[in-house]
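ping. complex inputs:
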Amino acid sequence: MKKTSLALLTGLLSLAAQAENIAVVGGFVHTMSAQGSVDNGTVLIRDGRIEAIGQGIEIPAHFRVIDAKGKIVTPGLIGAYTSVGLVEVGSSAGTVDASYKPQDFSKAGSALDVSYAINPDNSVLDVSRIEGFTLAATGMSSTHTLFGGQGAIISLGDSDNLVKPKAFMSLSVNNGGADDAGGSRASLWPQVENAFAEAEALNGKALSAKDEWHGYLSKADVNALIPVVTGKMLLVVDARRASDIRQVLAFKARHPKLNLALLRATEGWRVADEIAKAGVPVILDPEPNLPYAFDMLASTMANAGRLDAAGVQVSIGVETHNLRLATQHAGNAVANGLPWQDGLAALTINTAKLFGIDKDYGSLEKGKVADLVIWSGDPLEAMQAPEQVLINGEAIKMESRQTKLRDRYLNLKRDTPHQYMRP
Amino acid sequence: MKKQQTGRLLLATLTMAVLAACGQKADKQPTAPLVEINKDPYPSTYKALPSPATLITNVSILDGIGGQIEKGSVLFQDGKIVAVGTQVEAPADAVVIDGKGKWLTPGIIDAHSHLGVYATPDGPSHSDGNEATKPVTAQVWAEHSIWPQDPGFRRALAGGVTSLQILPGSANLVGGRSVTVKNLPGRTIQDMKFPDAPYGLKMACGENPKRVYGNKGGPSTRMGNVAGYRQAWADAQDYQRKWDKYAEEHKAGKNPTPPKRDLTLDTLAGVLNGEILVHMHCYRADDMGTMLDLMKEFDYKIASFQHAVEAYKIADRLATDNVCSAMWADWWGFKMEAYDGIRENIPMVHQAGACAIVHSDSDLGIQRLNQEAAKALGDGQRAGIDISKAVAWQWLSANPAKSLGIFDKTGSLEVGKNADLVLWSADPFSTYAQAERVYIDGGLAFDRQSPESWPVSDFELGQPGEGDVK
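pong. complex structure:
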């Protein structure tokens, strides 16, 4: 206990010592808040949080000034559905914490919890954050279980990475989900309903080791579903064809407490009004526009724009190693009908709202965590990139393993072997 | 039973003796006609769309060989480019298109596609890209797997792709023949085959073959992979010698028996003869270094390394040996040999004087290859590599055309070349730019402004989303 307190205290001290007060000056600031966009704006950052934003703000003494004249300033981007921090190399290179082979302890998968598995030293964090991503929702990618486990929100900063453990529970009701549930939606949905009935029957009280239990789910799995059935934990449901999306909306109608988001919603545009009416936000992977399976026949890159036009809150950013593609995906969604401002919202504030972290993240507002990006130009343009990223108010090193490899080989004309050359 | 057999044998011997006697009587053996191998048994039946005289004016032109013309014009007719410049005269009946604010480029050529061999909807029924039954399958031809109804062809067309190479997968050391096609939907693959394009041969380095065959009799290591290629080339050399000997003896009137056809060795010998171009899937720099020696050992040409994730580490050697690298802008980390992928790979290869190609290997990536080039160009420029957009467009058209052996026909906006071109709504290095009009051999193959003209594959007919914007 003593040890823990000491560790905590040291952590706090080191944070306070590191926190530099910064003024980002002269940029075109997209606050993504009610303040809108501010030309030639100043963002004051004190102790890792935003103190003020506006034009002509006086810069207090001892604030380091970062010149953003001619640049675009946005909130830090949020990976909407990733496995960042859980997978280093995808195939044939050892443990991948984003995948799970079902075991008796958790046959239904709901007890899986990625907050134990996140590795802040994972190289994907550096690679992603220099591309403007400061947070990511991260979860399991392959479980072959009814539920895909509990995901977390992580910061890509240098410390305090676990922002929100147990942030969401995953569920797939697409073809893949049906396959894992015995091959049919006719089995999948009764299993989901049963799992909910068992969790609801506990009336909010988790089973202890001593409790007698005759349910179908394991104790660990049913306990993990309690916050889901009470609406305290977001349920993210991957549904693709229109009829599956309708099933999800009907499920929410049967379980009104449920806090629900749709993932992928490939044919969402066909039922956009119903999604909007149910107030369910969606996380889109807007690129796939091919009929990869019979549950995504009507896939189109116009999906994001059509959902947005119907009043659905849209998030974009389903990737892991190449999280930077999310800006390109949003740009392509814009080229296919999504308003630009909503494209940027899909990478920032919408995702913060979806995961219930908008009190601290997702926009540049007084009191929020100072995660922000200074861009060379339009963040949704393929040729533009971040010039400086701030996370928790700290200007991060704009370096990754990849930039070091680049620098090592930029000049191939060397007299000594490359590995003996310092970058 | 036994008796009968003996009788037959006797009869056979007698017949031969009679024939021999006849030959002797004529005093000269009749020479059997020379057995030759038909090298084009599945010929192209491609027919271009009508190509009326068309003039696109007042447009920003990237000519694909490094030049940029502002307020330029391009005239094309009967499938060929007739004129490029700022002062272009057009016939009175020419279709004139005002390109104000728009950009005109050569059509994009994807050097690495699996459209049709891994068609959508995907699944075992459409998994036709890897003949993963033994490590060397040079006898298989991708064109015999391709489903021309793959909706991916139409999507790629909307992304400005006018030609593409379709390859077998990378499970095998030698995966089989590739084929280069025009991206114009046809009923059979022969309807799409690029006339007179040489065949390619897909080969693969590294992790994939050893993973696939590690428990299926090998190879299970990289050294096993290399032994496999070497034996295959040695066998092909032997096969070549047999056919050469046969041809020589035939020429000398010796009436030789032709060697037994071997479809695997036909293709491999085609590489050694310089008729078939090798496109080799390799990620690691050291793997590519070994392959450069291998090609010298057996005296053949590797036209391109495919993926070449570490090409930036040996770009100088690739330049010296004149081997192209077909690359992604930013894919990395999905396996160990992709772990050192960097965003500047393409511009760094270009900077070293080697041939850089932007490829897709993806039915989504192929729709936005211009954006892949844009990302690579931006990343290169930020690393201090000074490349213009006009020069960078070579990655999308001229260089892939060179690697496929079709640069004499397409890949740049030069007079006399095929009128394969794309009119973009804006600067194609922008995320927001879209291909508005795509011409293949001067025929308007895609017109974004006219939704009723968008091609819809048979598979998509009658399905949700039929004819929708994609």
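Chain B has a mean pLDDT of 94.
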